[in-house]
Structure formats: C-alpha cells, structure tokens
Specification:
By secondary structure, the chain is of the alpha/beta class. Helices cover 36% and strands 20% of the residues. It folds into 2 domains: 240 residues, 3-Layer(aba) Sandwich (Aldehyde Dehydrogenase, Chain A, domain 1), CATH 3.40.605; 191 residues, Aldehyde Dehydrogenase, Chain A, domain 2, CATH 3.40.309. It contains 15 helices and 22 strands. A 7-stranded mixed sheet has the order 14-15-16-13-12-18-19, with helices on both faces. Strands 9-8-7-10-11-21 form a 6-stranded mixed sheet, with helices on both faces. Helix 4 runs parallel beside helix 5 and helix 5 packs across helix 6. It is globular and about 80 Å long. It binds nicotinamide-adenine-dinucleotide (NAD). The site of nicotinamide-adenine-dinucleotide (NAD) has 31 residues, from helix 7, strand 10 and helix 8.
Length: 496
C-alpha cells in the first residue's frame, strides 16, 4: 500500500484551478465564505473557493429567467444538437474530468472515467428524447379542439451529492435542459470541482444564463429551495435532506424530485447459484466504484441459513482481497471515502456493531489502511440479528452486513421492515419464486440474479422514504414540464 508520508501523492489537477462561481454565464468570485477543498485520498489542498451567497443566487435566477424562454423557443432539434455537442466535448475531456473527481471524491480513476462517459451518455439519451415532449388531443363536439402541450417549468435547480460528482452534475442537467428549462446546478460542497470544469467546457453551447453552477453547502441549498424564482428542485441526496427540501420548498410550492438513500437487501435463496450470488453481493456493494458510497448498494445480505457460513466465509475472502489504495494509482481497486464526516460515520457504525457483539469477518474500523486519507477496508459484519443498528441504517460506505433467514415470510418481514425501499436483489433459480418476491419486495428497482447495474431508459427511484419520482427515463424529463390544456372553439362567423 502506498505510504503518502514518504512518496509524492499521485495524480494532479495540472494547471487547472476553478475560476469561481459560474453565475448567469459569467465567472465571478462567490460572495460567501471561502471554502478549502481537500482531497480525501491524501489530504492535499486542491482549491480554495468562496461559496456562492444569496446575491449570487439572485443573479443566477434573474439571468436564467431571462434566457430560458429563448432556449425553449429554439425547439427540440436545436436543443438536442447543443446537448449532443456538450456530451462530445465532455467525452473528449474524460481523463481530465475523471482525475478531478478521483482527487476530489477519492474514487478510483477508472471508475471516474466510466462516470464521465456515463454522464455523457445520459446527456445524449435526453438529447434524443426532446421530440418526445408530446401532448395529446381530447375528442370534442362541434368542431372544437382541445389539446395538451408540455411546457417547461422555467428555472429549475438540481442539488447533487458527493459520490459521483461529475456523473450526477452532467446527467442531472440533461433532462431539464432537454425540456427547455434553465438550470441552476449545485454540486456537493465536498466535491465542487468537476461541475465547475464542466461549465467551462460546455456553457457556451447554451444561451448565456441557461446554465449556472453555484457551489456551497446546506445554506445555499436551502436558499435555492426557498427562492421564489425557482420552479422546481431535484435532489439526489440523503433522506434528511429530502425532508429539508420538501419543507424549504413548501412556501413556494416547488415541484420536487427526490432520489434518496437506501438500505438495500440482497436475498440469497436455498436454490441460488451460490458462486454467482456471492460475486453479485460483492459487485452490489460498488466497492471499486464508490467505496460502497452508492445509494443502490446492496448493503445487507439476507442468506438462507443453510448457506450462511459458506457465504460469510466467501465474502470475507473476497473483501480481504480488495486492493485499497490512492484513487489515482492504476493498481487501486477501492479508493478513499469521500469526506471526513463519511469516514467517521462509517467507522462509528463498525465500532458500535463490534461493541454490541457482532463478529467482524473482514476489515474493521482499525484494519491497516494507507497512511493518509479517509480509507476504510471493506468490512463484513455478521452474527447479528435484524434489530441491530447496522442492519437498519444506511452507512453509505464499504460496510456489508449478513443476516441468516429460515423461511420466506420471515425474510420478507426483514426486507420490508424499514422505511426505505430503493433497490433489492434476489438470487434464485426458481422463476415462480423470483416473480413472487419481485412482487412482494418493497423497492423501486429489483434485480433477479444480478445487482447494481442501471439500464438506460429504465426508471430508477425509490419507494417509501427512498424518494419521490423516477429518473434516468422519460418520466425524469416529464417531471420538468407541466401540461397546458387549450380548447379552441371555431369562430362561427368564419363558418367553422
Ligand atoms: P446530502 O443530502 O448531504 O447532500 C446532497 C446535496 O444536498 C448537496 O448538494 C448538499 O449540499 C445539499 N444539501 C444538504 N443539506 C441541504 C438542505 N438542508 N437544503 C438543501 N440542500 C441541502 O447527501 P450526500 O451526503 O452528499 O450524499 C449521500 C446521500 O445521497 C446518501 O443518503 C445516498 O443514499 C444518497 N444518494 C441517493 C441517490 C439516488 O439516486 N437515490 C444517489 C446518490 C446518493
């Protein structure tokens, strides 16, 4: 493992440094307090950046309101063309953008290159849907015509988290822009850099003011939610932030999309292909992509009692084999946690589980890790009951717990016993059972004999407190539109 106390930290931002806030088409220093952005991988200072403050937000909203109607009037083909060009430019800068994210959020470079291309793919996907912003006609008597069109909402905001900084920044501006809105994007205060670089690369493709990128923390997010000039807020974030967004937007009746957290179950049945299920449980944790900091990570395995010991041993071996290291090194299979708070939170969960009598079958809060940075080895927790804290709370880190079950009803009670319901994964060779469980498990996305993968156009989102609405599909674009109904009555004098 690299010891950064004796070797130069790998990876560099090169000559690039953020120019400040991107407000209404203009780069300006934010009026808020200066924020130091450090790498969670090695502690180095990446940038110092004043946050955007209320007056910056007001300027961004005013510029967006002015520019939005012209953008909408350009029509679907021109908007698609601009978005496709944006995607091409981002792909052409994939290495640079991925290095910014690797250093800023601690995830391995290879995963962040994948993320840049995924963000570009989602932009292309929504570019291809602009002509699907279709309405309907309603039958009428007497030659009248009633029709419904989809109108953009106007100025909308997207608040995104730290775990896929660039991918979410790119992907989440795409649907509202495709629908003809102006967008104010707020990346996480922990990982603001790649969104700012994205604005440098693509903003000239849109009328000035159509895209603003403002960086700052919860205060700025709250100001966005309360702003009367913003029609909608889409959040990718935690459940408590989802509640704050709903409360903050209540006075202005904001349209709201929420993609929130999960404590997702991976169920291994008696008849499962065990090797595949074990590999699926490792894959489902997204260790190499985000050190387990994925909303969809299947972070609780429920395995039939007959396979419990075997599955625990095999998962422990797989976790122990993961090569932890600096995200910019090619040898690294899992990087650092993205923030100090996340690191302390995840370690705290592991320490409390151990103190409560759980067996730590791999990793652990004090397992050896690189000398600097927020590293935590993939940790496997077993010999607990379903009431254990670790089996109920989202850790958002490389921590997996394993629970045995005896009969299906008991297992379903555990799976559905939480207020969360984002994803689930079922491993069985029995088609009837697979169908029955997909119908009974309370989750927005269920894989059978797979985990983790998203598919373009397939709705993604949660039930219960895991969110409101569906994304990565046509419905996401429609969420940034509203129906307008028109009835035309023929003029009798003209003979109609
Ligand atoms: P977070 O909720 O702390 O922050 C998300 C964004 O909201 C950030 O930009 C943040 O600055 C902003 N924010 C924070 N407090 C706010 C407030 N009071 N008002 C308005 N905005 C506010 O989330 P995080 O810690 O960055 O990310 C981790 C969480 O995100 C996890 O719970 C994870 O499950 C969830 N997540 C969900 C999805 C999904 O698609 N469902 C995807 C990724 C992450």
């Amino acid at each position: 493992m690299p010891d950064q106390s004796t070797t130069a930290a790998p990876g560099t931002l090169g000559a690039w440094a953020p120019k400040g806030q991107f407000v209404g088409g203009v780069w300006a220093q934010g009026a808020g307090a200066a924020r130091a952005v450090h790498s969670p991988a090695d502690g180095r200072l990446l940038a110092t950046l004043p946050d955007a403050a209320a007056q910056d937000l007001d300027r961004a909203v005013a510029a967006a309101a002015q520019a939005q109607k012209g953008w909408a009037l350009q029509g679907p083909v021109a908007r698609a063309r601009a978005l496709k060009e944006a995607a091409a430019r981002l792909r052409a800068h994939a290495d640079e953008l991925a290095m910014i994210d690797a250093l800023d959020c601690g995830n391995p470079l290879t995963g962040m290159i994948f993320d840049v291309n995924l963000g570009a793919t989602l932009i292309e996907f929504f570019a291809g849907l602009t002509t699907e912003l279709k309405g309907e006609t309603i039958p009428q008597a007497g030659g009248k015509l009633t029709f419904v069109t989809r109108q953009p909402l106007g100025v909308v905001a997207r608040l995104v988290p730290f775990n896929h900084p660039f991918m979410f920044a790119a992907a989440k501006i795409a649907a509202p822009l495709a629908a003809g809105n102006a967008v104010i994007l707020k990346p996480s205060e922990e990982t603001p850099l790649s969104a700012l670089r994205m604005a440098e690369l693509i903003a000239d493709l849109f009328p000035e003011g159509v895209l603003s990128v403002l960086t700052g923390g919860a205060d700025l997010g709250a100001a966005i939610c309360a702003h009367p000039g913003i029609a909608a807020v889409g959040l990718i974030g935690s459940v408590p932030t989802g509640r704050a967004v709903l409360r903050g937007g209540a006075d202005t009746l904001k349209r709201t999309q929420l993609e929130l957290g999960g404590k997702n179950a991976l169920v291994i049945c008696e008849d499962a292909d065990l090797d595949a299920a074990i590999a699926g449980a490792v894959k489902g944790m997204n260790l190499g992509w985000t050190a387990g900091q994925s909303c969809g990570s299947t972070s609780r395995v429920l395995v039939h009692k007959s396979h419990y010991a075997h599955v625990v041993n095999a998962l422990a071996q797989a976790f122990d084999a993961v090569q932890l290291g600096h995200p910019a090194l090619a040898s690294t299979q899992m990087g650092a946690l993205s923030t100090r708070a996340q690191y302390e939170k995840a370690r705290g969960f592991v320490q409390r589980a151990a103190a409560a009598g759980a067996r730590i079958a791999a990793g652990g809060a004090d397992a050896p890790v690189p000398a600097q940075g927020y590293y935590l080895r993939p940790t496997l927790i077993c010999d607990i009951g379903p009431e254990a804290e670790i089996a109920n709370q989202e850790v958002f880190g490389p921590v997996l717990c394993v629970l045995p079950w005896q009969d299906e009803a008991e297992m379903l009670g555990i799976v559905n016993g939480l207020d969360l319901g984002l994803t689930a994964s079922i491993w069985t060779k029995d088609l009837d059972r697979a169908l029955r469980l997909t119908q009974q498990i309370e989750a927005g996305y269920v894989w059978v004999n797979d985990a983790s993968d998203h598919y373009l156009g397939a709705p993604f989102g949660g039930v219960k407190q895991s969110g409101l609405g569906r994304e990565e599909c046509l419905e996401e674009m429609f969420a940034y539109t509203e129906a307008k109904t028109v009835t035309l009555v023929p003029n009798a004098a003209s003979g109609g």
